[in-house]
Design brief:
The chain has four helices and six strands, in the order ααβββαβββα. InterPro entries: GAF, GAF-like_dom_sf. It comes from Geobacter sulfurreducens (strain ATCC 51573 / DSM 12127 / PCA). Keywords: Coiled coil.
């Protein structure tokens, strides 16, 4: 091999070596790029997995929110039912109190009626009527006035809170008392809380009637301080007094007259036989 040929061979070897180095460097570069791309791919896959978890959590959150709303609606319905039950319980309790009060009133009415017919003594009948008016109706000042058949006027025979001397004699058909006795109709002044005592114009005037025959009236002028107005049971008591009290008064007066006449006759007989 000549020197020239040897130089040319060395030059090609050097070129080959250079080309090999470049190929090696390019290969190294490709490997690094491949590694970088692979790493990036892994990152992207991880990101995608993260987004999936977030999406799944979002779906779960929406389900939970819907369930919370549903539970809140159920709680609101339950609270509404509880309030409705409480209202019904309050109504039942109020109704129970009313029924208990009505039972007490009926018992009081029965006792009052029984007491009115338990005696034929005129003074005791008036005393029982007075106690009924005080204890059951709650009046503080009132009068019981009876018709005098001879004079056609009304005279007080019993009173509470007012002396008998203060009470005026009233003729039938005159004033509130006379009209109530003449017509047999109850009289109630408007607004008992604003009423001011007027002996000729009572707060309430109840005729004492036996059927349609009026034998007197009950005139009420003042209620007890704790009683501000009339309750429904009071009107039932007024009805009771209008009938039962009148019957008791009438019966006791007849009995008293009979007893007095019997006593007179017995005295006369004793006088004749002695």
């Amino acid at each position: 091999m000549s020197v020239e040929e040897e130089k040319g061979l060395l030059a090609r070897a050097d070129e080959f070596l250079q080309a090999f180095k470049k190929g090696a460097e390019f290969t190294q570069e490709l490997l690094r790029e491949n590694e970088r791309l692979r790493f990036r791919t892994l990152q992207l896959e991880a990101d995608q997995k993260g987004e999936g978890v977030a999406a799944a959590l979002a779906v779960e959150n929406r389900k939970l929110a819907a369930r919370v709303e549903e539970l809140e609606r159920e709680i609101a319905e339950i609270i509404g039912q509880i309030r409705q039950i409480e209202a019904e319980n309050n109504d039942f309790a109020a109704r129970y109190v009313e029924i208990e009060e009505e039972n007490n009133n009926l018992a009081n009415l029965y006792i009052a009626s029984y007491q009115l017919h338990s005696t034929l003594d005129f003074s005791e009948v008036l005393q029982i009527i007075t106690e009924i008016i005080i204890n059951l109706i709650g009046a503080e000042e009132f009068a019981v006035m009876l018709v005098d058949e001879k004079t056609g006027s009304l005279d007080a025979v019993a009173a509470e809170g007012i002396s008998l001397e203060e009470l005026p004699r009233v003729r039938l058909g005159e004033g509130v008392i006379g009209i109530a006795a003449g017509t047999g109709e109850n009289y109630f002044a408007e607004g008992p809380e604003t009423y001011e005592r007027d002996l000729l114009r009572p707060m309430v005037c109840i005729p004492l009637k036996i059927k349609e025959h009026v034998i007197g009236v009950i005139a009420i002028y003042k209620l007890l301080i704790q009683k501000k107005s009339f309750a429904s049971v009071d009107y039932e008591l007024f009805t009771l007094l209008a009938g039962h009290a009148a019957t008791a008064i009438f019966s006791s007066r007849i009995y008293s007259d009979s007893e007095r006449k019997l006593s007179t006759m017995q005295g006369f007989i004793n006088l004749l036989t002695t």
